[in-house]
Structures are given as structure tokens and as C-alpha cells.
Specification:
The structure is a homodimer of 303-residue chains. Chain A is α/β, with parallel strands linked by helices and 303 residues long. Chain A has 9 helices and 13 strands. Chain A has a 7-stranded parallel sheet, sandwiched between helices. In chain A, strands 7, 9, 11 and 13 form a 4-stranded mixed sheet that branches. A two-stranded parallel ribbon of chain A has the order 8-12. In chain A, helix 3 runs parallel beside helix 4, helix 5 runs parallel beside helix 7 and helix 7 packs across helix 9. The radius of gyration of chain A is 19 Å and the shape is globular. In chain A, 53% of the residues are buried. Chains A and B meet through helix 3 and helix 4 of A and helix 3 and helix 4 of B.
Chain lengths: 303, 303
């Protein structure tokens, strides 16, 4: 049981880390730039802070023993190439330095499948699949990981790096795949997608949050894929949403071209997450999509 | 002809970049934290600034068109593992962002042979030798390079990254190999070294400085080895210093163990530097060591 500081705590993933951390008995402190981010999480102590402006301030005030750093620039459509990624490298390194200076001992940070070289056959395996990011976002994450990993021992902390693959769930930004298809169908609109032959590893955001909470409590260091281990084609996912929404007729699969350079497969090996961290996802894709579509149905209902 | 800002301009390498940049016709602005760093360089405009405290300030004031960033933590014996490396990643990225924001167009930064995986046979080649740093210093440099390289296009700048190998010359810190052996012998002291079978690529610091000045004026992007292309054993170098100093009798080669993990060879392929940048070293190792020993002889003479 420790004092844990969670950054990005008001974000899509961050919100799902708070309950598991509380249930593990931690004293949970949450940072968010969003006003009202703490609504509905009364057992958490919220701190309103802009990590880009002052990465170390909140760490110095809270003096957390453990750090879960999820905050990053994540604007859909822009985050792959935005220069904001550079500022988040800087802020993340400053945050980790401050954490060590305040006698913190365990840091968990969020990475991405975008660190791996894409287009190779097979699943991405930590420590063996080449790290050759195709995007500024992937390079910024990979570079941050490299420094934190090399520095951890010198700073006297243990550090893990959860590499997020594809995720979905209630509350997702409407510009992202599952959210856009579900909200379109439930609003009676046509959903035009690419042919969807690309295979991806999807994990429900509540499982992603729980996996990060488990990483905070483990002593595993280095990179760990945070994923389901199951590959599904985007077409399967889109068709499942169509069925759950009761509007498969509104799907127009193949109406759009695939994004240029989109790899055929981005799949995860989850041996480390399962065997070393001891985390196994609780929500199957079928269940998770049903629950997500139900949530979007609530949103679509006229108020 | 451009306004060029040089960081680390008062340092061992930085001092040797100023004359070549002036000779190329540039308007040279130099940053240093050392007071009196500008003595003897009257055609250069000096700025006293601490880049760690305010990386963007001097860039905003000078608004340089080109940036040569050499400043980094370089305390002999400590820089391989010091947490200061993390702060220099942050400061360097902030500096590059500020430079792009001030409409700079060409940035040259200093990397290191420590970015490469050591212990592989053959010369290190940019773009093909694996980047697997063995030290925090190497990881910090490599991570900085990765972000700058991925960001350059998005920031609207062209960026090159000069990877420095081994260097020597007048004014070197006495804790480094050539300086320590030369100053010991000229003070009539015994110089105990390892067996010196390790092979390295040495380049005179004036050539290193001139190579960086050439990079500023080239449009080559990405990593470029800054080295001679010639491998010499440390023993050859030590023995040459003994001869030049006239005191081979004071050498005690093999009296010390090699540092643990010290690789047999760290050698550079210099095809890019020679053919793409068009730079060829002017000072042979024999000449350079003679001149360096002569300089140390001046220092050793009772004042």
C-alpha cells in the first residue's frame, strides 16, 4: 500500500486505473488538467496541474512512492505527427527526475505499439521485435522509454513501460474507430469504413486500466505489451458493432481506402503481461463491444 | 552566410568550431556558461546563458538561422552514468523547438559513438550498425537523436547529427587519456596505463571542430560519423606520446587493468563525412600528437 500519483487520470485510460488502485489499498492521487475530472471518484485526491508547464510541482507536493504516468498528447488525427510529442518527452523526463528526487521508488509509464517496427510478420515481442517507429509519436515514446530504462538504476527507481495496442470502450473519442462506427449506427447514420482486412489486437479500456494498475504493484521492469493477445480483423470488429447496434444495414465496409502505409497486422505477444505481471484480461471482445454499443445507445437517446 | 548560434562554444570542441564558421563568412553567436569564454575570439558575439535553466531564451534573442548544439554534460569519469544526461535530453529538445519556432532552418547536433552497439566486429556505419547504447550517456544521446530526426520534417528544419568518436588535442581535460599521459610524462611522472590493445578512432579536436562547421554548411541530414576512419591501438597512441615527450622510460603500459566491458574496437566508417559532407581531416595522428605534446610541454614549464 503506497501513495500513488496518476497522471492523465481524467483521460480515457486514466479513469479506469483509479478503482483498481483503490481496491489494491493505495492512497490514490490523481492529476488532470480537466476541471471536474474528479467527479464520481470521491476516494481519490485530485490535483489540478498542467504537467507541460510544471512537471515537477505536483510530484514535489504529493511526494508519491509510486507513479503511474499516462498523460500525453492524444488528439485523434493529430497525435501521430504533432510537435507536441516533443514537449511530452521533455515533461515526462522531468517528471521522472522529480519523482526520483522526491524518493519515489516505482514508476510505470505508458508506451505504444507504435514503438515497434511495423510490417514484420508475427506478433510484437518485447525485447526482440525491432524498435523502429514509423511516426513522430512512436519515436517520442520510444526515445522516452530508452532514457527512462537506462536511467532507472542510476535514479534508484524501478520502471516499467506498458505498451498499449488498440483499445475501445465507453467514453472513447468519437473520432476513433469503434466509437465512430457505434455512434454513427446508433444515430441512424451510414458508417463507411475501409475493407477492414487489417488485423489488430483490441483490449477493452477497463482491462487496459486494470493492467496498468497491476503493473504499478508488480516489480517487472522494462517494456510490457498491454494487449489481449488475440488478433481480430477490423472487419470482424465493425461487423460485431453492426450486430450489437441492430443496424448492420448501415455498414458500408470497403467504401473508404485504407490509410496509406497501414500495416496488415499489429499484434501483441502477451506472455510477459500474463506470466510476469500475472494479469489476464477479464472482458472478452464480444462482451466488451456489446457493453460499449449499449453505452453509445444511452448517449444517442434524446435527452 | 547565416547567423549561426553555437552552444558549448567555450568547450573543448566548441572553441574549434568558431574560426571555421567565421571563415565561411557566418555571423557567429556563441553561448557559454563560462565567464571569459570569449577571450581571444573577438569576432564572435558571446552570450552568457545557462541552457539547462532557460534553453529557449538565447535562441529567441539571437533568432539564428543555423544552430550548432555542442553543449552537454561532459564531466570526465561521471558523464557515462550521471543523471545530468536526462536534463540535457530535455534542454536539447526544448532548444530545437525554440530554434524552429524562431524560424531557424538548419540544426547540427552532437552525438556519440556510444550510441552504437559495441563489441560487434567491423566499423560503425551510420544507418546499419545497430544502435544499442551500453550507457546512460549513449542512451540519452541516441534518444535525443531519434526525436530530433523524427521531428525535423514536422518542425520545418533540416537536422544532422555528428557522432563523435575519440578525440585529443591541446586544452583537453587532464583526466582523459592523451592529456593524462602527456601531462604526466612532461611533469616527469610515471604514466601507468592498461595494455592498450583496444583499437579506437582518434581525431584531433581542431578537425572535429572543422567537421562540425562543415556539417553546418552542408545539407546532409541524419547521423554522420565524425572521425578519421583510421583505427589505432591505444598502445600506439601512448607510445607515440612517450616518443614525442622524450620520456618513453616513464611509460608503464599494462600496469593497470582495462576497464571492465571495454570493447576491443570502436572504429568508424567515414564514407558519409568524406563523400556527402565533403570533409577530410587535415591533421594526421602523428602531427596532432606532436603538436599536443608540445602544448603540454608549454603548460609544464615553470611559469
Amino acid at each position: 500500500v503506497s501513495r500513488v500519483l496518476v497522471t492523465g487520470a481524467g483521460g480515457f485510460i486514466g479513469r479506469h486505473t483509479l478503482r483498481p488502485l483503490l481496491e489494491a489499498g493505495h492512497d490514490v492521487h490523481a492529476v488532470s488538467t480537466r476541471l471536474g475530472a474528479g467527479d464520481g471518484a470521491p476516494d481519490v485526491e485530485w490535483h489540478h496541474s498542467d504537467l507541460l508547464a510544471d512537471p515537477g510541482g505536483v510530484v514535489a507536493r504529493v511526494a508519491p512512492e509510486r507513479l503511474l504516468h499516462l498523460a500525453w498528447y492524444a488528439e485523434p488525427g493529430r497525435y501521430w505527427t504533432a510537435p507536441e510529442n516533443i514537449r511530452w518527452v521533455e515533461a515526462t523526463l522531468a517528471l521522472v527526475r522529480s519523482f526520483a528526487a522526491a524518493n519515489g521508488t516505482r514508476a510505470v509509464l505508458s508506451g505504444s505499439c507504435a514503438e515497434y517496427e511495423w510490417g514484420l510478420p508475427g506478433r510484437c515481442v518485447e525485447g526482440s521485435t525491432p524498435l523502429r517507429p514509423a511516426t513522430l509519436y512512436g519515436s517520442a515514446k520510444n526515445a522516452t522509454r530508452e532514457v527512462v530504462e537506462a536511467a532507472a538504476g542510476h535514479l534508484g527507481i524501478s520502471a516499467a513501460w506498458g505498451r498499449i495496442f488498440f483499445l475501445y470502450g465507453p467514453g472513447e473519442d468519437r473520432r476513433r474507430l469503434v466509437a465512430s462506427v457505434a455512434s454513427a449506427l446508433l444515430n441512424g447514420e451510414r458508417a463507411a469504413t475501409s475493407s477492414g482486412t487489417q488485423r489488430r489486437d483490441f483490449l477493452h479500456v477497463a482491462d487496459v486500466g486494470a493492467a496498468f494498475a497491476a503493473l504499478v504493484d508488480s516489480d517487472v521492469s522494462g517494456a510490457v505489451n498491454v494487449a489481449s493477445g488475440e488478433g481480430r480483423s477490423l472487419r470482424e470488429v465493425i461487423e460485431a458493432i453492426g450486430r450489437e447496434a441492430g443496424r448492420p444495414d448501415l455498414l458500408d465496409i470497403g467504401a473508404r481506402p485504407s490509410p496509406p502505409g497501414d500495416p496488415d497486422e499489429i499484434l501483441a505477444d502477451v506472455t510477459r503481461l500474463g506470466e510476469e505481471v500475472g494479469f489476464r484480461p477479464r472482458i472478452s471482445l464480444a462482451e466488451g463491444l456489446a457493453q460499449t454499443v449499449a453505452w453509445w445507445r444511452e448517449q444517442a437517446r434524446p435527452q
